[in-house]
Amino acid sequence: MTHQISTKWLGGMAFEATNPGGNFRIDADIEIGGTNNGLRPKALMLDALAGCTGIDVASLLPKMKVAVDSFHIDVEGDLTEEHPKYYHAVRVVYHFYGNDLEKEKLQKIVNLSVEKYCGVMEMFRKFAEVDVKIEYHPKV
């Protein structure tokens, strides 16, 4: 399978990126000549990681008959000091909300994504140390 995208320069530091799911704008910070009016390329990589593993988790919840009220994923990455700057350490935190959360099943779901299904996670592991954590939040 091959994926293809197209990215068109809009002038300055701005680009319009196409994706099978829609278009979006990429731009740089004002400090380096952008207009601060678009998504940042490196942060998009973190979004891709969260989206990939999130889709895995969302697809596995019903298959494993696990109920949660909601969940979200926080991803934080540390860039190298020298150019080319890339993420050398990444932290992924899964937050599950609900009463009577089945922690063992949720751990298994996250492990399946992290270790087997999420291709973006595997790509990140090629260049960064990836730390994964799960937090459970009962309803109050």
From TrEMBL:
Q: Per its record, how is this protein called by name?
A: OsmC family peroxiredoxin
Which species does this protein come from?
Answer: Flavobacterium piscinae
Q: Which Pfam families match?
A: OsmC
Taxonomic path = Bacteria, Pseudomonadati, Bacteroidota, Flavobacteriia, Flavobacteriales
Q: Which InterPro entries match?
A: KH_dom-like_a/b, OsmC/Ohr_fam, OsmC/Ohrsf
Spell out the Gene3D superfamilies in the cross-references: 3.30.300.20
